[in-house]
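User: What would this chain look like folded?
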Amino acid sequence: MDAVLRGLCFFCTVVTGAPEPAIPRGDGDIWFSHETIGADTHVLRLSASDLLLDVASARRERLDAFARRLAAEICSDRFELFDAQRASWPEAPPTYARQYVVRCR
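Assistant: Here's the prediction, encoded as structure tokens.
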């Protein structure tokens, strides 16, 4: 009987293990991950690669536009998009990655 209980205990531990991290997916030159952190709250983590003649401001605009498009898909066009960058984090140009918080309405 002890062997059966130990076997079931091992099975439960394996099945209920820690969640896997979000694997980034690519869409053009932007890689992103999407995490749900609440009922109507999501975190988007985006990163962009360099284009041939690319500047930080254009890259940031692409990331912002992609975040708005992804938020519209997630929330059926009813959302609030917030910049998740903290003021205490140093600004390190050029910008290759951004984080956003999306709240569905």
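The longest helix spans residues 56-75. If you want, I can go into more detail on any region.
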